[in-house]
Amino acid sequence: MSTPLLSVRGLRSGYGAVEVLRGVDLDVAPGEIVALLGSNGAGKSTFNQTVSGLVAARAGRVLFDGKDISATHYRDIVRAGLIHVPEGRKIFPNLSALENLELGSFARARERRAANLERVFGIFPRLKERTRQLAGTMSGGEQQMLAIGRGLMGEPRLLILDEPSLGLSPLLVEELFGLIATLHGQGLAILLVEQNVGQSLEIAQRAYVMENGAVQFSGTGAELLATDRLRRAYLGV
């Protein structure tokens, strides 16, 4: 693997007296899709929020493009090009689709907003048809497109996608994973945090499996699909 764009070592964090992450190591190379898998409560979302600066790290290091961002403010992390599309979409329901997209370039790439809008509309043509529609009235699939599109407006160097398929129909999940593969084909590095194991491993170069706040094993998609450890991690058998 080339020099990692994101390198996490010994990361610990949590909430109050509760420690959730217990020494996580993870790498993402430039242009790579890496899947972070695990059942509910494994610590995946806490990992995303800690790397993104939304939750304070208690120990360990997070390096982005070789710079330690472990104690960096989340706005500066966004400005560096590490952009997090959160679980649950977190769109602004009372703003239009266009206004939500424009907010994505508030901290980064504001001067290229018009060009990036056209790029997003090229990837998600449905959003162009709904620029004036209030985001809260859009379908679940359209809201997920909007959340990803908003992330792309900031010209990410690494895009963290937290449970992007959650709540979507099987047809929309298929479409979503196709779009993620398209973004990867354009050279974007992606950390895909998902419970949809099969489709994640189909498009990821490598994957990590997290249990109880720690990475238990990792490997290529083919390696993980061939091991019983993956089944045990999810089913406990």
TrEMBL record:
InterPro entries, alphabetized: AAA+_ATPase, ABC_transporter-like_ATP-bd, ABC_transporter-like_CS, BCAA_Transport_ATP-bd_LivF, P-loop_NTPase
The UniProt entry's GO biological process terms, in alphabetical order, are: L-amino acid transport
Task: For this UniProt record, give its keywords in alphabetical order, as a comma-separated list.
Answer: Amino-acid transport, ATP-binding, Cell membrane, Membrane, Nucleotide-binding, Transport
- Keyword rRNA-binding applies: no
Q: Name one GO molecular function term.
A: ATP hydrolysis activity
Q: Which residues does the UniProt record annotate as the domain ABC transporter?
A: 6-237
Stated family: Belongs to the ABC transporter superfamily.
Return the protein name: ABC transporter ATP-binding protein
Source organism per entry reads Caenimonas sedimenti
